[in-house]
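Batch queue: ligand-bound targets. Current item pairs a single chain with zinc ion. No template structures supplied; prediction is de novo from sequence plus SMILES. Inputs echoed for audit trail.
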Amino acid sequence: MKVIAIDIGGTKIASALVTFDEAGACAVDHVGKVPTCAMEGGPAVLVRVIEQVRARLEDAAGEEISGVAISSAGAIDPATGDVVSSNGKMPGWGGIRLGSEVTAATGLPCRVLNDVHAHALGESRRGAGRGYASSIVVGIGTGVGGAFVGGEHIMLGAHMEAGHIGHVHCAEAAGMPCDCGATGHLECIASGTAITESYIRFGGVGTYERDGETVPMDGAEINRRALELDDGNAIAAQQLAGFALGSVVAGVCSMLDPDCVILSGSVINCGHYWHDAVAQGFAETAMEPLRGTPILLASLGDNAPLIGAAEHFVRSAYADI
Ligand SMILES: [Zn+2]
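Prediction returned. Tokens below.
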């Protein structure tokens, strides 16, 4: 079975042909990427999405396409394919009837999943979590997101908000204001953005020279400073973030007891200071029977949401659990 998979984010729209063979393997071909230009508004983004579907249809060169599988930013109602709401990074995206608009324009059936959920489903079923019955997937990048995948299903929750591990309270972030409006949440201390903020708060510089230009400090440079320069502020910022993450993940494991934990996102590219701190935070917080829960690293990279959306389409098995 072959589907067109689309991943709609705040900065880019990725697309591909995803093929599942009879042995259960999947292949991703004809990957395309275009800018989202989200500030042009929801209807303009929808036009670009449909253009990408048509471009991949041409790539398929007459091969049978079963439908369109979409991973999208924003709160998504998977039953209808509607974008229920979106944040300020995608103005006017909320309210777009994405699934039915794509079907109307192309004649193809369409199923839509939130991008965090699609990413988690892809990694759980086809990536690092393959062979495990259930997993908690935690994405650590600009923010911190997550999902619980049990069997074929993603836990959605009563308000479609299940899995927001970045907005669990943690001691290390006590009193810090969070983007969600509350205080003291994991994201305030464990996201990539937070690592840079901690580095500067600890006394590190806010800019550095790259290719002859002065640019704002970033996670990759902090990681280099930790590993190559033994920069104490860089090491401390990574350790604080990693320990907080590990301890909150352990708490969530106490609640859900998954077969594995999968870490993904740009922050997993940090070196050993961060990884060791995650392991330490987990070990110090986890209940004894859960201490052996495997903590795995994501393996699908940018293809995870495309594969997850396709998996969702193919299985048509989305349900709350
Ligand atoms: Zn929060």
